[in-house]
TrEMBL record:
InterPro entries, per the entry: MHYT_dom
Keyword annotations of the record: Membrane, Transmembrane, Transmembrane helix
Protein name: MHYT domain-containing protein
Domain of life: Bacteria
Residue span of region Disordered: 251-287
MHYT domain sequence ranges: 10-199
Pfam families attached to this UniProt entry: MHYT
Stretches that traverse the bilayer: 12-34, 46-70, 82-104, 111-130, 142-164, 171-192, 212-236
Biased composition (Basic residues): 261-273
Length: 287
């Protein structure tokens, strides 16, 4: 018996909240990725790792908030804890690989294609591994064309987002990129969910695993903590907001105002740059 699948049992609440979480993770992750290219090279791995964690946590949280509204008529849905944790790990690791490729090779050419492909595959892998963690009284089947379309959307979204992160054109630029990324990632999720068909067995045996409320609620504490940490780092690092390297500070010399432009060298430096100056004596020389 084919069960009726409903992905919007709470109306537009779960899609909108899921989209906002995807945008939040994308915005924080992209700004951290941008920041990695603006500071000392020794700090780059830390910024890229934080960006990967933010994007992975945002995508994972988006997926399972959306799954809160997913129901199948005639059977309860439970989730396997191990596979659910594994889907989060896959998202963070594969997104991290893609971000590190772009962070060290640049957001152009082969590096952008490779990084975007790996990141997109990480998002899609997280989605379908999380779906594999579902336990219900029935058989789940997928439409191959819709699955392929969801994977293509994920790779395209990841490539576009990483390209935008490499432009480093300021905070508003990254906000726009994160909105597009959130829309594409959420679209990938619902395209993948449209590919689902469930054939309910109709037996009285309860499904194994834990309910969504009992499992996913506590599990979201960790990813949300990562997003809060990334948000605090972004807020308290002005360079992340400005999106450009700081200007060199001017040397403070006696008699020179502190607000003098940094690109004008001090007076003494200009005098030294001209070389020695010949002084003529006003006293007439004796013949």
């Amino acid at each position: 018996m084919q069960g009726t699948v409903d992905g919007f049992s709470y109306g537009l609440v779960t899609p909108l909240v899921a989209y906002l979480m995807a945008c939040l993770g994308g915005a924080l992750g992209l700004r951290c990725t941008t920041r990695a290219g603006l500071g000392p090279r020794s700090w780059r791995p830390g910024w890229l790792a934080l960006g990967a964690a933010a994007i992975g946590a945002g995508v994972w949280t988006m997926h399972f908030i959306a799954m809160m509204g997913f129901t199948v008529e005639g059977t309860p849905i439970h989730y396997d804890r191990a596979l659910t944790y594994a889907s989060l790990a896959v998202a963070v690791v594969m997104v991290g690989i893609g971000i590190f490729i772009v962070g060290y090779r640049g957001a152009t050419g082969t590096a952008l294609f490779t990084g975007g492909t790996v990141t997109g595959l990480g998002m899609a892998s997280m989605h379908y591994l999380g779906m594999a963690g579902m336990s219900l009284d029935g058989r789940v089947e997928y439409n191959t064309v819709a699955v392929a379309a969801s994977v293509v959307v994920a790779m395209a979204a990841a490539s576009a987002a990483l390209w935008a992160a490499g432009q480093a054109r300021g905070f508003l630029w990254s906000v726009g990129a994160s909105l597009v990324m959130g829309l594409a990632v959420t679209g990938m999720h619902y395209i993948g969910m449209a590919a689902v068909e469930v054939h309910v067995h109709g037996t009285a045996e309860p499904a194994t695993g834990e309910s969504a409320a009992a499992l996913l609620g506590p599990m979201m504490v960790g990813p949300l903590a990562v997003l809060v940490l990334a948000g605090l780092v972004v807020i308290f690092d002005p360079l992340v907001v400005m999106g450009r390297a700081p200007a060199p500070s001017a040397e403070r010399l006696p008699g020179i105002p502190a607000h003098s432009p940094a690109h004008h060298p001090p007076v003494r430096s200009r005098l030294r740059a001209r070389g020695p100056v010949e002084h003529r004596s006003r006293t007439p020389q004796r013949r």
